[in-house]
Each structure stands twice: as C-alpha cells, then as structure tokens.
Amino acid sequence: MGWAWKEECLDLILVPLGFLIMCSYHLFLLHRYLKHPQLTAIGYENNNKSAWVKKMLLIEPKDRGFAVSVLSGQLIASTSLSTISLVLCSLIGAVLGNSYGNYLTDRFIFGDTSKSTTSIKYIMLLLFFLLAFACFVQTSRHFVHAGFLISMATGDVPVECIQKAVIRGNNFWAVGLRALYFATTLLLWIFGPIPMFVGSVATVMILHFLDTNKEPMIVYRTNKNGADGGRFLKRTVQEVTTVVAGFQHNIGSK
C-alpha cells in the first residue's frame, strides 16, 4: 500500500522550513552584530547615534531643543507602530472568534484548512504582533528617558547613560521591526504554506541586503567642522572674560 500525498503535508514541510530559514538568518545576524558590528546596518546606526549624543552634549542645554525634536520624531514613529500592532491584535482576536472566516480558507487555500491549523495560524500571528507592540513600547520608553536626560540644564549626566538609552531604544526598534517581518510571513501562511515559504525566502534575501553594511565606520573627531568641544570651550572662555572685564570695570568706576 503506497503512501498517499495529502495537502496537509505541505504545512508540515514548508511552514517549519520557512520558519527555520527566518530564525537561522536572524541568529546569524545576531552573531554578526555581536562579533562584527561594523558589518551590520544596526551596528553602523548605533555608532552614528553614539557620536550624535556626544555632539549634542557639547551644545549648551538651552540650545538642545532640536536634539529633543529628533528623539521626539523617533518616539512618534514607535508610538504609531505600537498602536498599529495593538489594533491588528484586536482584529486578529475578532477573526479568531468568528467561525465564518473559515469559509474562504476552505474553498481557496491549497493546504491544511482544518480549524486547529487555522487557529494556530492566527495565534502565532497574534503573538508576533504582541511582541512587536511590546518592543515599540520599550522603544518609546528609552527614547523618552534619553530626551529627559539630554535636556537637563546641568552637565552632570554622563554621556554613557544617554548613549545607553538611545542605543537600547534603537535595538528595541530593530527587534520590533523583525517581529513585524515574522508576522508578515505568518500572514502569508493564511493563504497557504506555499506563499508563506516563498515569502520567508524573499524576506531573508531582502533583509540580508538591507542589514549588510559595506560602508566603513565613520570616525568622529572633536575638531571637525568647528562644531566641537574646542569651540564650546573657546566661547565659554570669551564669555567668562567678558564677565570678568565688566566686573573689573564696575569696581574701577566705584
């Protein structure tokens, strides 16, 4: 008696294979980021953000409004994506409670269309959207904290604290986007295992192109383009000299 091929077998083969491809690529990306950050776009961005924080702290606190505006822009983006993720979670929950939604899958999907498999699809999709929501919330938290620190009137805040907040916010942002990428491939699974597998392969190819950094790390110096600590120190010395001269003039006039 020969082995009979069934449509359900496609889900057992292609879906785990596509998910394995996505997970393997991101493990490779994580290893590359930890060992050779200069070869990844995330490491390149974090290097630029660290230098940006140092440059912003060279500016007088009263003139750091545009720095807070930059952080606010990132904050708005993360808040928007977290809201979208939460709305999609609500929609998926509504679909899970609607048995009429299985009508289309029973007629047009080539693969396993059983109720248990359909429930697994939506539950996994819901989990990744919840993960994206949590990551974007943490992104907002860290950027709010960074904006609070960078706008302090005194210079008592170590630059490392602000850099850590900005980089952590950027890392949570990256993880949240990855969760959305996983959710996109799982969304294709609703239309069958073949679109899910093809989408996983295409996503990995596109992400490998986007995540690879071929540009050398920018070495930021403190004496470039005049916007450095030397200029700030020179301006401070001039202001102190002016104040002292005015004070001496007042003493002499008395």
Polypeptide structure, described:
The protein is an all-alpha fold and 254 residues long. The protein folds into 2 domains: 213 residues, no CATH class; 31 residues. Helix content is 77%, strand content 0%. The protein is built from 8 helices and no strands. Helix 1 packs parallel to helix 7 and helix 3 runs antiparallel to helix 5. The radius of gyration is 26 Å and the shape is elongated. The protein starts with 7 loop residues before the first helix and ends with a helix.
Set out the fold topology:
Layout: H1 8-35, H2 41-57, H3 65-96, H4 102-108, H5 115-150, H6 159-189, H7 193-211, H8 229-253
Keywords: Membrane, Transmembrane, Transmembrane helix
Transmembrane segments: 12-30, 75-101, 122-139, 186-210
C-alpha Rg (nearest Å):
26 Å
Mean pLDDT: 80
The run of helices and strands is HHHHHHHH
DSSP strand count: 0
Structural class comes to mainly alpha
End-to-end gap: 116 Å
Q: How would a crystallographer describe the biggest sheet?
A: none
Helix count, DSSP H or I runs of 4 or more residues: 8
Low-confidence blocks of residues: 223-230
What general form does the structure show?
Answer: elongated
State the share of residues found in helices, binned by percent. over 70%
Number of domains: 2
Beta-strand percentage range: under 5%
Give a quick precis of the structure.
InterPro entries: DUF599. With 254 residues, the chain is mainly α.
